[in-house]
Each structure stands twice: as C-alpha cells, then as structure tokens.
C-alpha cells in the first residue's frame, strides 16, 4: 500500500495519520492553511456531544469508544510530545434540563452514569451558579484543551516520521480509471497512492470535484474567552445551546453561536454581548469578568451530526472521514481507528455501516 496522503490537518486528519503511521504506513498531511488551526483549534474541547441523548444512534458508539480511549491517548501524547493536552474529567452539569426523562432513558440504554440533582445538590456542586430548581450531572464527561492537543499531536507525529505540508490547497483530483492518480494543488499536480480526505467544512465543495455529493457545509460558531479565578466553577455547564468550559488556570470559554453564513468567520460584537449575557445568567459573577479573546470557527455541518466515514464509491484508493459537525474532537479517536482499519484492511473496532458515504444518495 505504501503511502497515504491525508488532506486536512485538523483533529480528524491528525488522529487518522497517527493510526496509519502506527500501522506502518508512510503518511503525509496536507493542509490549505496551518495545521490544526481551524475548527479543531476553535472548539471548546468538551469530549461529549452536547445533549448526547438528542444525537442519532449512530453517533453513540463513536462517542463512547472515543471517551474510553482519551485518557490513555492524552497520556501517550504528553509523553511523546512533551505537551500536556490537559485532559480534565470535569463532568457535564445541566441545570434545569428540559428533557430529563429522555436523558435518563438514554443513560440506561447506553449504560452511562447519570446523576439527578435537586436544588440543594446543584448548589453544592457549583456554588457560583444562579439558583436553579434541579439538574443532571454526567460525571464521566471530560474536556481537553484543544489547542494544546493539536500541538501535541503534530509534534508526536513529526517525531514518528509523518510529513506535513502547510498552505497546500487541493483544488481537484486527477482520475485514472477507478483510482485518483494525482491531486491538483495551487503548487501543481502531485501523485498519490492512497488518499484520505479529512477537510472538515471544506469537504463538500472539494469532493464535488470528483463526483461525490456529501451534504457537508460550514456552520460558524463564535466563542468568548473570559478570565476568572481558578475554581470559580469546576464542571462544564450546559444550558440548551450555551455552555461554560472552565480551564485549570481560570480561563473560561463561553459558547457558542450556530450560524449558517458560509465560509465567513467575521466576528460580531453583538454575538460577544449575547454570549456574555448567557454566561452571566448561568453564573452572575461572569457579568464583569475580563474578556480575553473572541473568535470564530467553521464546523463541518452535516444533516444530523452523523459523520461520513468510508471509501469513495467510485475510486478505490480514496477514503473520507468528515462531517462530524460539533463533535469532531469527541469522535476523533474512534473515527481514526475506523478509517485506518478500512484503509489497511484490518478488523474495524466498531461497525462502520452507519457512516458509509453511499447513504448520502439514499438520503
């Protein structure tokens, strides 16, 4: 099999490159910009789908497999790179959850620990929270400091012999019978042996150039970073679409927006104000917390958040792993293990039928 070219240097591509390199393959990662600087950098680092009981069944095995894998993965990356990804088992706290019954049924079905908290227990868990009647706690949910994770991945992969090429935008494909023989880039044509496309929000547009229509499109998300005293809150707190993610050093992320505006990462002051207001409704002390940063990323939106992982139906040497929407960091380890197994012909760690690319035509 020889050499695999991974197009897309986000967490999905880098974790797949790690698996492929471990299987003994030569790997080169290309990125249209800088490695690890798009959605994988811009996200919150919560290692769970938001409201996991609202996600399709197909997302659950990827999520649960990945959550089990992360502690050992984070430790290995810290040892290999010298950078601690800061995996933190903070738990996910949901005050006044509107569909607690559905959450409890989901937890029972998938055997996930879930605790119901009354107002007193909720206040004890997070004294800084505004008063709430009740809440739910997923105690095993962790978070990771995703910019550190991406740096750790890159350094570990470089030390393992993976090659990187930044600012190498792929414009199209050069087919030869039932294979893609080369990539057309801004720097010219380059031959490929095996190709893995992990280009996030850009995947839909790129794959249309080789006849594959996957419904993957950009969805902008804006996040506000506030500086607080370490320990102001200890859990990730989620109330509908708004969340708070406390880092060890007191940095707190308040997110996020969901905006269908194409490939536009323009920041809106009104969005920053709305994110702060939502944060302050949850934790009143955040009303006056200093703002450190405000940024936006482009999520790879797919119809229901179920990613596309599999081989191209027309070209036998082309594979895809994309469309993870808001859960790329969460689903990356399992997605990487699955697509690597498909490429190498090994036994996959879980059934991949639900992620096949052909389902886009059926839908």
From TrEMBL:
Single GO BP term: thiamine diphosphate biosynthetic process
Entry annotated with the keyword Oxidoreductase: yes
GO MF term (any one): flavin adenine dinucleotide binding
Alphabetized InterPro entries for the sequence: FAD-dep_OxRdtase, FAD/NAD-bd_sf, Gly_oxidase_ThiO
Protein origin, superkingdom: Bacteria
Pfam families: DAO (PF01266)
Nucleotidyltransferase is among the record's keywords: no
Annotated pathway: Cofactor biosynthesis; thiamine diphosphate biosynthesis
GO CC terms in record: cytoplasm
Entry keywords, A to Z: Oxidoreductase, Thiamine biosynthesis
SUPFAM superfamilies: FAD-linked reductases, C-terminal domain, FAD/NAD(P)-binding domain
Domain FAD dependent oxidoreductase: 4-341
Name of this protein: FAD dependent oxidoreductase domain-containing protein
């Amino acid at each position: 099999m020889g050499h695999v070219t991974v197009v897309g240097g986000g967490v999905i591509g880098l974790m797949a490159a790690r698996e492929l390199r471990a299987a003994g393959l030569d790997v080169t990662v290309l990125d249209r910009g800088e490695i690890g600087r798009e959605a994988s950098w811009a996200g919150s680092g919560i290692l769970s789908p938001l409201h996991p009981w609202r996600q399709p069944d197909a997302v659950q095995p990827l999520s649960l497999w990945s959550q089990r894998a992360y502690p050992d993965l984070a430790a290995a990356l810290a040892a290999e790179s010298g950078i601690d990804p800061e995996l933190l088992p903070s738990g996910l706290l949901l005050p006044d959850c509107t569909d607690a019954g559905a959450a409890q049924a989901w937890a029972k079905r998938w055997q996930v620990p879930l605790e119901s908290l009354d107002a007193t227990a909720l206040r004890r868990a997070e004294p800084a929270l505004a008063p709430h009647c009740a809440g739910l706690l997923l105690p095993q949910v962790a978070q990771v400091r995703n910019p550190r994770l991406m740096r750790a991945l890159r350094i570990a992969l470089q030390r393992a012999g993976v090659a990187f090429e930044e600012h190498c935008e792929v414009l199209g494909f050069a087919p030869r019978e039932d294979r893609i023989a080369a990539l057309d880039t801004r720097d010219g044509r380059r031959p490929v042996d095996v190709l893995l496309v992990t280009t996030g929000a850009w995947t839909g547009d790129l794959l249309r150039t080789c006849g594959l229509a996957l419904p993957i499109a950009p969805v902008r998300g804006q996040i506000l970073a506030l500086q607080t005293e370490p320990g102001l809150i200890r859990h990730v707190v989620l109330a509908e679409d708004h969340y708070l993610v406390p880092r060890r050093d007191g940095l707190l992320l308040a997110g996020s927006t969901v905006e269908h505006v194409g490939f536009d990462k323009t920041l809106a002051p009104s969005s920053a104000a709305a994110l702060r207001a939502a944060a302050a409704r949850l934790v009143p002390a955040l009303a006056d917390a200093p703002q450190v940063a405000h940024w936006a990323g482009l999520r790879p939106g797919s119809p229901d958040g179920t990613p596309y992982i599999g081989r191209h139906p027309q070209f036998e040497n082309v594979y895809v792993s994309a469309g993870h929407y808001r859960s790329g960091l969460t689903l990356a380890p399992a997605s990487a293990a699955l697509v690597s197994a498909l490429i190498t012909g090994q036994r996959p760690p879980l059934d991949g039928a639900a992620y096949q690319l052909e389902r886009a035509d059926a839908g």
